[in-house]
Amino acid sequence: MMQQYREIKKQYPDAILMYRLGDFYEMFFDDALLASRELDLVLTGRDCGQEQRAPMCGVPFHSVDSYIARLVAKGYKIAICEQVEDPALAKGLVKREVIRVITPGTVFESQMLDEGRNNYLCCVLLEPDCAGLCFADVSTGLAEVAVLQPPDLPGKIINELAKFVPSEILLSPGAAAEKRLRDYLAQIGLTTAETLAEEAFDPAACEAELMRHFAQAGMGADARRQMGLDEEPAAKRALGAALGYLRQLQREGQCSIRQVECYGESQFMRLNASSRRNLELCETMRGREKRGSLLWVLDKTRTAMGKRLLRAWLERPLTHLPRITRRQSAVEELVQVSELRLDVLELLSEMHDLERLMARVVYQSANAREIQAVSASLALLPGLKAALAPARSELLTRLRGEIDPLDDMCRLIDATLTENPSATIREGGMIREGYCAELDELRALEKDGKGGLVGIQNKEQDATGIKKLKVGFNRVFGYYIEVSNAYKELVPEHYIRKQTLANCERYITPERKELEARVLGAGERIVKLEIEIFTQLREELAGQYRRVRRSAGAAAELDVLCSLAEVAAARNYCRPEVNDGDEIEIIEGRHPVIELMLDGAPFVSNNTALNRKDCRCAVITGPNMAGKSTYMRQVALITLMAQVGSFVPAERATIGMADAIFTRVGASDDLASGQSTFMVEMKEVAQILKDATPKSLLIFDEIGRGTSTFDGMSIARAVLEHAADPRRLGAKTLFATHYHELTELEGGIAGVRNFAVAVKRRGDDITFLRRIVRGAADGSYGVEVAKLAGVPETVIRRARAILRELEEQERAKLRATGQAALYDMEIAVESAAETLSLSESETTLQSLQLADFVSSLQSVELDTLTPLEALTKLYDIVKQAKAFG
Q1: Do residues 726 and 644 make contact, with C-beta atoms less than 8 angstroms apart?
Q2: Which end of the chain is more exposed for a tag (fewer CB within 10 A), N or C?
Q3: In a 3-state reduction of DSSP, which class is residue 765?
Q4: C-alpha closest to that of 526 among 429, 591, 433, 646
Q5: In this predicted model, what pLDDT tens digit does every residue of 625-658 receive, in sequence order?
Q6: Angle at which helices 368-378 and 354-362 pack, to 10 degrees?
Q7: pLDDT tens by residue, 444-481
Q8: What span, in angstroms and rounded, lies between the C-alpha atoms of 399 and 557?
Q9: Helix axes 368-378, 510-542, angle to 10 degrees
C-alpha cells in the first residue's frame, strides 16, 4: 500500500495527497506534517517497511470538505485519491487513482465558496503587441475573455485583475517575467500564481482544446461564432490554456464552462486598483468588510446569483449609453410600480443558486437533494414570467422573454426523485416508487424477504416441534436458525451447523441460503439501479444547461434591478440624466454610504457643477475633517452609480459619462518594496496623468504631502495645471488642498474655480458646516482640529504661540520690503472673518460674500505692485471692508 501511495504521490509533488483508506482520507510524510500543522490534527505514524515510521494524519471522509476548504483558502493544492474498483472484486490491493485536484480557482463546492462573489481562475497571455485574458468561474460555468491593446499592457492587466479579483492565476512565460505584474501579485498576497509551459499557449494546441471542449459540451459552430472567439486569437489562446489546465485537474476531463463572453476595453468605465480601493466599492479599506461599502448600501438582493451580479455591475460601470438607459428605465418602473417589484422579490426569495447547482450537475457531483433544489427553483419560473406580464420597459420585457418555464425538466425531476431523498447517492432511497418497474419488483422482494422472518420462524417451529427456535440475520452469516442446547436432539438432519455459542447452536439450510441470496442480491441491485437512474437524470439535466443558465441569468438580473429599485424607493434617490456630454451637475447630492451610516441623522447635501468650459477644475480648501474627502468621493460615487444604471442620492443629477474615474486619496507606505508614502503617491499621480483623458473624472486629495513645503506646493500646482489645462489634459477634476497658494490659479487658468468648506468659529472653537461654498477658505484651522482630536491643552497653547511667532516673522519680512500695510489689512480681514458669529439662516449668503472678498484679497500679487497700485488697492480693500459693517 505504501508503494502505491509513493507512486501516486510522485505524479502530484506540488499537491497535498489525500489517500482514501476505508472511512478516512490519510496523509503521509511531508503532507502529514504540513496538514497536521495547518489543520491542528493529531500526528501519528504507520509502519512503511523502513526503520522509521511514516508520519501520518487523517480526516473522516464524510467531513473532508471543511478540511479541504481550510487548506484551499491558504493557497494549497489538494489531490483526492479514491478507490476506483470494488474492494469485494479486487484481487490483492485495491486500485486507487487521483480523481480530482482542487486548487483555489477550481473549487465548485458551495460550502467552500462565498455565495456573494464569483471565484475566478485567471489565465494571462502577455505578448509584445497584445494581451489575452480569460477569467473562468467553474462554479457557475461562465468564462469571460478579453484582448488588451498597448500601451502599458502590464498596467491594464493589473487593472483587470483588480476588477475580477481571481483566486488563482495562470501566467504565460512572458507574463511571469514582467516585473510590474509580479510585484502586484506579491502586493496583494496572491501566492497561487503558476507559470504554464509555452506549449500550453501554442495556437494549434489551444484550438484543439477548444474543439474538444465544445464538442464535449454539445456546443456547435454557431455557438462558437456567437462568442466571437475567432476574431480574437489572443483571447482564444488564453481560454484554450485555461481549459487545458482544468481538463488535467478534473475527473474524466469534465469541465462546467458552457458560456463564454467576450468583452472589450471600451465597454466599461476604467477603474484602476487604487480607485476601487479608495472608493470602497465592495469592501472597506481598513477592515476589508462589506459593511461600509457601496455594495453594502445597494445590496437588497434575494438570491446568491443576484449578489454576484450586483458586485459585477459595481465593478464594471457601463460606458454604453443605451444599456445604461435601459437599466434606468427598468429600475424606474420597479420604483413606480411597487406591486410588480414586491411580486418579483417574493418569488426570488425562494430561488436557490441555479448557476452553481447546474455547474455541479455538469460535473456529475450534484446529489439528489441538490437536484431537488434545482426543481424547486425551476418551479418558480412560470410565476416569475407571469409576474412580469404588466412590465412595459424594454429591459424587463426582454428578461420576461428570456425566462424559459422549463416545465419538462420539472416534471422529469419530480417523476424521478422521492420527496425526501438521501443525502448521498450510495445510500439509495432516491428514486420514486412507480418510476421503474424493475426497481419496484426488487424493493418488493427485499421487503418480503426481510419482513418474512416471523413467517419463516413459525414454519420451522411447526416443522421441527422446537418451540424455542429463532430465525435471525446478521452481516456475517446472513440468515440463520438458532436452537438452544436443550433442544439439540430435535434438530433435523438437513440443518447445517454454522456457529456454536455457549447456550445454543446456529444452523443454516439450503432453502434459507437461496432466500438470502435473492434478498441480499435485491438490496445490492436496488442501490446499483438507483445510481444508474440518478446518473442518467443528471446527464439529461446537464444537456439542458444552456436553457437553465439563460433563465438563471434573467432571474439574477431581475434581482439586481429590484434591489436597486428597493434602495431608490427607501432612500429617496432620483433618476439621473446620463448623456454623452461633459457636464456633471448634481443638486443636493449626498454620500450614499455615510448617509446610511448616520442612521436617520441629517446629512448635509451639496451641489456640484463641473464642465469642461467655465468650471473644469474645482480647487477645494478647508480644514481637515470638514468634509472635503467625503464630498469628492460623493461626486465620484454618484457618477459611478449613474453609469451602473442605478438611481442616485440627489434631488436632481445630470451626468456626462466618464470613461474613467481616477482617485489619489490617502497616504500609505509600501514597505515590502521599499517605497515611502510620498513615492507611492507620486507613482499613483504619474499613472493617473498618463492614463486619463479629457472624458475622465479625477479626484486628487492633498497632493504633495510627505516632502518639503515648497517641493510639495510646486508638485501640487504643476499637477493641477496639467489636469486643468485643455492643451495638456483638461479633465474634470476635484482638487482638495491645504496649499492656499493654489487658489491663485482662479483667473489665471480658464476653468479653475475655488470652493471651500464653510466653517463657523466662535473664539477658539470651530464648527464644521459641511457645506461647499464658492471661494477659498480663510485658514486651515489645523490647531483647532488638533484640539478637537484631543491633543493636550498644553500642546495646543504652545502651537498657537508658535503660529503667532511665525506670522510675526512673516510680517517682519514684508515690513522690510514696504508691504506690511497690505499684510496687516489681510490679517485684519481674516481675523474679522474668523470672529463673525452668524446664525444658521445667515451663514450661506454672507459666507459667500466674505469668501469672494477674501479670495480677491488673496489674489493680490504683493511682489509686483508699484506704490501707486498698492495705494489704489488698499483704498478698494478698505471700501469693501466697510461694506461688511
Answers
A1: no
A2: C
A3: strand
A4: 429
A5: 778 899 999 999 999 999 999 999 999 999 999 9
A6: 140
A7: 777 766 555 667 778 888 888 888 888 887 767 777 88
A8: 8
A9: 40
